[in-house]
Amino acid sequence: MNEHTRDINMARVERDIEKLSEFNATPGDGITRLTYSEEDDRARKYIINEMKNFDLNIEVDGIGNIVGKLEGQDQSLGSVMTGSHLDTVKNGGKYDGVVGVVGGLEVIRTIKENNISTENPLELIIFVEEEGTTFGSTLIGSKVFTGKYNIEDIKRHKDQDGKSMYERAKEFGLNPDKMIETKDRNIKAMIELHIEQSIVLEKNNLNIGIVDDIAGMKWFNVNLRGEANHAGATPMNLRKDVLVVASEIIKEIQNIVNKSKSGSIVGTVGKIDCEPNVPNVIPEKVNFTLDLRDVNKQALEETSKRINNNIKEICHENEIDYSIELMGESSPIQLSNKLKKAARKSAEERDYSFKIMNSGAVHDVGILADITEAGLLFVPSVDGKSHNPEEFTSYVDIERGCNLLLDTILQLST
Ligand code: GLV
Ligand code: MN
Ligand code: MN
């Protein structure tokens, strides 16, 4: 069969993307759909309902990862999985994650309604807490799904009110003591469709990115403790102002990252909290995050050590108490050559222009790479904007991505 004689139904994809964007806590200021929020609940129900309409067999694990299965001809064969995430960062965009969820759903709907029978079962997976916005570590759903994280990790990761993901999952109506046992699953491949989130495809006027390597990442939480005192009455030489120390450290982080020979390493301090956060009190406590990433493992490790030592030195010099906690990490990943080849063949058959490229953003499929053949497809992001209300990918580009996902999945499953 010439696979690309079938096309996905783009009207249905557009409807789903638009509908999901309504489940949003910040209308008019990007999309905010945090894990276990009411908006998340509504988005999950919408997708589960769509899966039910197409008779998928649905399983939800103890923290809320959703899997919908369409049986193949041979029950003994491993599943070909596809999917992504529904959670967003605060004031994020409409396409990050959603394109892979809706695209994967649409591929399975197309296969089912055209009565195309595949040898392998097909599974749509929706991972919970990919962004790490609520519980302080990215890719939690896929880490639990693959057994990298256990219940203790779920108890360790807390939200801003100090409640653990374990407690919040219970409040959300889940049973976090029950996890999907990945060791009992037979997975042949996992392939994720995602927006690029950078400018490479647009700049080169290309339709598709086929991903080679995904950057590794480390997330740190840095706590500094000084002394609160009167902003008017305390002379400058008698202060332990931790916000000043934090600013020195943050500037040094940028210097260290810029000086790295890697050429691909990036570092970001994106969240900072200060206490008591009052104009006329010298700051006593500062907490900030560090997001450090590189496709080069050695550079990531070395830079991370250098930054840790530097924080130690600056705190010693300033007689400041500090702690540095590693909140989460993932290694740089090389994706499956077999899947790259399959995607490339499908792109050539459809006459889509493409590029083999790396991903600076992390993705759940990178975690799945430890247990199965893993592949990642990109569609262009306008102006390279993402994690931003202005994030945009045209429906023409999304349609190409969905059709490429369809053809690649059919290659892998028949
Ligand atoms: C996830 O979107 C990340 O790369 O931060
Ligand atoms: Mn994403
Ligand atoms: Mn994201």
3D structure, described in words:
There is one protein chain. The chain folds into two domains: 10-215 and 332-413, Aminopeptidase; 216-330, 2-Layer Sandwich (Alpha-Beta Plaits). Helix content is 35%, strand content 22%. The chain is built from twelve helices and 14 strands. Strand 3 (79-85), helix 3 (98-113) and strand 4 form a beta-alpha-beta unit. It is globular, with a radius of gyration of 23 Å. Glyoxylic acid is lined by residues 131, 138, 361-362.
How is the secondary structure organized here?
Blueprint: H1 10-20, H2 38-53, E1 57-60, E2 66-70, E3 79-85, H3 98-113, E4 122-127, H4 140-145, H5 151-156, H6 165-171, E5 187-195, H7 200-203, E6 208-214, E7 216-225, H8 242-259, E8 266-268, E9 272-275, E10 285-294, H9 297-317, E11 321-330, E12 333-334, H10 337-350, E13 354-359, H11 364-368, E14 373-379, H12 395-413
Parallel strand pairs: 3-4, 3-5, 5-14, 6-13
Antiparallel strand pairs: 1-2, 2-4, 6-12, 6-14, 7-10, 7-11, 8-10, 9-10
Helix pairs in contact: 1-3, 3-12, 8-9, 10-12
Bound molecules: glyoxylic acid and manganese (II) ion (MN) (2 copies).
One manganese (II) ion (MN) is lined by residues 85, 96-97, 130, 194.
